[in-house]
Specification:
heterodimer, A: about 375 residues, mainly alpha, abc type-2 transporter like fold, 2 domains, 4 strands, about 65% helix, elongated, B: about 325 residues, Rossmann fold, Alpha-Beta Plaits, 6-stranded mixed β-sheet, 4-stranded antiparallel β-sheet, 14 strands, about 30% strand
């Protein structure tokens, strides 16, 4: 119960600190508007007409025929228009003449490699062709693995195991404002690390630590109260940002706002525990604050907070996985645009495991230094 | 006894902050802990109430061992820390309310207690104001209110009047007197000897982590072996008068500087009337007269060779 009081009064003091409030609310709200307006072009995509692809059908190779069959599926035909030619050179000629965007050639060696030749200059079309070929490879590999394991069910479909992610059946997609509302909200939650860094130290700063210690309180009550107070503050901040952007900027937060709030709570727990742990490990809240302020910006950048994820280089995309911002963004995108449920579950689990681990470390460090 | 401390030792590395001190406090007593800054008063207090761990010694509060029953004992202790320990972004009411809740107060009882201590400290009219707008004196008073909200059996006031205006200081002194009259048991630490003299029934003087003297005010003054000094400014000097004073009973010395005569008498002889009568008889007019009696400052000076104030400025 006493932890709840500590949490309530901690949140009350944070909310009344106008300096903090300005940076935690005004900054993201302005940034959403600026980034949303300035980078709107990055989110405009051209009308998706099927990409014309040439398939070199030069023999009766089993892999080639499987690929041919795969490309003729109704789903695939919606995005790829396949024309078969019997000669590689004839196909290349069509590419050079601009009659098709890509050429797919299955080498008839033992390795059964599929070569894709694409015209340069259109990243989107290129990624469509590559994704389809990758999907075929995955299903072929699965089929091969199934047969090696002794599977013989002729009705087994290997094309169904291809997961579809973030493609909304209604054709909805995030506008720049929607995207940056999410990334800036996540950045605000991650700035909770700085609250976390000062959570214990502020009692020393205000000299109130002596009152808490001289009262009949256990360390865990103080610790839980302080951490919960900061999480509560961040959740209040998140609510204001979501409501403001929903009704003023008309940002699409999807139909399941409670789940978006739960994602915010998850990120708030992570940020607070990361802040507390960093402060306790470094042993100096000011140094921890400086480090975390910089780190939040780096994590925001890596997590697609400024440059949209789909515009990043492949190296940057790999680095994005290190950023909790990226995980939070994927959870929100999947939730709002009917994406992968498994990705939501996996990323959510990663965030909670990280948060709880950091909290345990902080609690042990804190007990030793404050008890 | 409300509190008994035996052979308490507290070290910080190689520094012996509290050096084997023992003392006890009776119920209803105001126990003064006097000493310059850095004497070890705050460390001693923090160790006694369990904020810092003692390296050695026994502490019994309300008849219970502090080590074994800290959680239970702490419920009945109220501390007014030396530093102002309140939240600037809360109102006066919210500050007291918060600390009251930490002592399990709630509902109408909590409300009544908060109002009571705010009234006691003269802050009831400012209860809705944010503390960040308070003067230093008001913050000091609120610092006291936060410690009293749960009606502690033992109140510890660590330098409660440091750095405030005379009006707020008087208010705090009067509040402590009121608590004394209501039978509160208080430990009052200060380096202002006037406050300790005025408030405390029993006094311990600390220096370099040790208690160097203890007793009632009168008992402590008995430590002082110096004489009583009377400084008289006259309208003119009559050297016959000086000779007459020198030959008076109990006068140790009489010196002259300009129109000022300084008379040193034996301690406790109350020679002032005789000296004044002698001056009147000689036909001189007294312009001013200062009679200096030993105080706790003198006691400290006698015991340590330093003054409390000097220690304060050099600390």
């Amino acid at each position: 119960m006493k932890a709840l009081y500590i949490a309530y009064y901690t949140a009350l003091r944070k909310v009344r600190n106008y300096g903090n409030l300005t940076s935690m609310l005004a900054l993201p709200i302005v940034m959403i508007l600026i980034l949303g307006a300035a980078l709107d072009g990055s989110f405009q995509i051209e009308n998706i007409n099927p990409v014309k692809v040439i398939l070199v059908n030069e023999n009766e190779d089993e892999l080639l025929q499987s690929l041919n069959e795969f490309l003729k599926q109704e789903d695939i035909k919606e995005i790829i228009n396949t024309e078969t030619v019997e000669d590689f050179d004839k196909g290349m000629e069509k590419i050079k003449n601009g009659e098709a965007f890509a050429l797919v050639h299955v080498k008839t060696d033992n390795e059964g490699r599929i070569h894709v030749y694409k015209r340069s200059g259109n990243i989107f079309r290129s990624s469509v062709v590559q994704s389809v070929i990758d999907s075929f490879n995955q299903s072929a590999n699965a089929e091969y693995a199934y047969s090696m394991l002794g599977g013989n069910d002729v009705n087994t479909s290997f094309y169904d195991n291809i997961s579809e992610e973030s493609i909304n059946p209604d054709g909805k997609r995030p506008k720049a404002l929607d995207y940056y509302a999410m990334t800036m909200l996540i950045m605000t939650m991650m700035y909770g690390t700085t609250y976390g860094a000062f959570s214990m130290a502020e009692e020393q700063f205000y000299r109130t630590e002596i009152r808490l210690k001289s009262a009949s309180l256990h360390f865990h009550e103080i610790f839980i109260g302080k951490v919960a107070g900061i999480i509560l503050t961040l959740v209040i901040d998140a609510s204001v940002i979501i409501l403001f952007t929903k009704y003023v900027y008309d940002v699409n937060w999807g139909d399941n706002i409670p789940f978006i709030m739960f994602t915010c709570i998850t990120l708030a727990v992570l940020a607070t525990s990361l802040g507390v742990a960093t402060s306790m490990i470094i042993g100096n809240e000011n140094k921890a604050h400086a480090l975390l302020s910089t780190m939040v910006q780096v994590l925001t950048f890596l997590g697609g907070g400024y440059v949209p994820y789909h515009s990043m280089s492949s190296v940057m995309k790999k680095l994005s996985f290190l950023s909790p911002n990226y995980l939070g963004l994927r959870i929100m995108l999947n939730a709002i645009y009917d994406g992968s449920q498994s990705q939501i579950r996996n990323y959510m689990a990663i965030l909670w495991i990280a948060s709880l681990s950091l909290l345990v470390i902080s609690a042990f460090r804190g007990r030793r230094s404050l008890a | 006894m409300i509190l008994e401390v035996k052979n308490l030792i507290k070290r910080y590395g190689d520094t012996l902050a509290v050096d084997n001190i023992s003392f006890s406090i009776k119920e209803g007593e105001i126990f003064g802990l006097l000493g310059p800054n850095g004497a070890g008063k705050t460390t001693a207090i923090d160790t006694v109430i369990g904020i810092r761990d003692a390296d050695k010694g026994e502490i019994n509060i309300f008849g219970k061992d502090m080590k074994k029953h800290a959680s239970e004992i702490k419920k009945y202790i109220g501390i007014v820390p030396q530093d102002i320990a309140i939240y600037p972004d809360l109102t006066a009411y919210e500050n007291v309310e918060f600390f009251g809740r930490l002592y399990d107060l709630k509902g109408s009882l909590l409300k009544a207690r908060v109002e009571e201590v705010l009234e006691f400290t003269g802050l009831l009219d400012q209860k809705k104001q944010f503390v960040r707008n308070f003067s230093g004196g008001m913050k000091r008073r609120l610092n006291i209110a936060c410690a009293l909200v749960h009606r502690p059996k033992l109140i510890i006031m660590d330098e409660p009047t440091v750095g405030i205006d005379p009006q707020s200081r008087n208010h705090i002194i009067e509040s402590v007197k009121k608590m004394r009259n209501e039978g509160s048991t208080i430990i009052y630490t200060s380096h202002y000897m006037e406050e300790v003299e005025q408030l405390c029934s029993y006094i311990a003087i600390m220096d370099h982590g040790k208690i160097i003297a203890r007793g009632s005010k009168e008992e402590l003054k008995d430590f002082v072996t110096v004489e009583e000094k009377t400084v008289i400014t006259l309208d003119g000097i009559n050297y016959t008068l000086v000779d007459r004073i020198k030959t008076m009973d109990n006068v140790v010395d009489c010196s002259v500087e300009g129109n000022v005569i300084t008379v040193i008498s034996k301690k406790g002889t109350n020679n002032l009337n005789n000296i004044i009568q002698c001056i009147i008889d000689s036909g001189n007019q007294i312009v001013s007269l200062i009679s200096e009696k030993p105080d706790l400052e003198t006691v400290f000076l006698t015991l340590t060779g330093r003054t409390l104030r000097d220690e304060v400025t050099t600390a």
